[in-house]
Amino acid sequence: MLKKDLRLLYDNRRKNLTSEQLDAFSLAIANRLLKTPIWEHSYYHLFLSISEKKEVDTSMVLSILQGKDKNVVLPKMLDDKNLINYLLTDNTIIKKNHWNIPEPIDGIEVPPTKLDVIFMPLLAFDLKGNRVGYGKGFYDTLLKECRPDIIKVGLSFFAAEDLITDSEPHDVPMDYCVTPDQIYSF
After folding, report:
1. Which residues are recorded as binding ATP (predicted)?
2. How far is CA 98 from the centre of its chain?
3. For all residues of the chain together, what is the average pLDDT?
């Protein structure tokens, strides 16, 4: 299936989820995430959920990271293509931007080469680890700046599609995708 068709399909599927389903699925994803082999690292990049888009609630993932005393790094949109990464501290102020994305105002910048694990938002993914985001390319751009050994983890309410037919050579596949029912390893 084409990316544009998957965006439409999965955006509609998410819109139809109840708040009870969102909470239960997000909790199941966080619990399943504990069974992935990613916890021996230090720097974890975590997106904060856009509640208006009914994204996976990452607050539970954040609690796990803080409970494991990990360095949590949050993205902020720098311009139309780039993210800047800030270390989450007790003094971090979070504010929604014009797309309703919660992000830090400023803080201690963390270079992409320091990141060990990155949790990535997505709308859909396939059995090869390709993901479909919102189409702006922020994470594709960020991944080009990261070390080649960074662990890429998607979080999804839904199972994998067989194939995203218009994946491109510059698309960076994920290493894992965690759903409420399964851990996909690529």
Report:
1. 3-7, 131-139
2. 19
3. 96
Q: pLDDT category, 169, cuts 50, 70, 90? A: confident
Binding residues: 3-7, 50, 55, 131-139
Name the superfamily (CATH) of residues 3-185: NagB/RpiA/CoA transferase-like (3.40.50.10420)
Query: H helices within 16-113, ranges in order?
Result: 19-33, 59-67
pLDDT digits (tens, 9 = 90+) for 121-166: 999 999 999 999 988 889 989 999 999 999 999 999 999 999 999 9
CB 161 within 8 A of CB 124: yes
Q: Is 54 left (phi over 0), alpha (psi -120 to 50) or beta?
A: left
Binding residues for substrate: 50, 55
| Distance, CA of 60 to CA of 49 (rounded, Å) | 11
Rounded to an integer, the average pLDDT of 90-101 is 94
Q: Please, what is the Cα angle at 86 between 85 and 92, to 5 degrees? A: 150
Residues within the annotated binding site for ATP?
A: 3-7, 131-139
- Helix then strand count (H, E) for the chain reads 4, 11
Q: Tell me the C-alpha distance between 116 and 125, whole Å.
A: 22
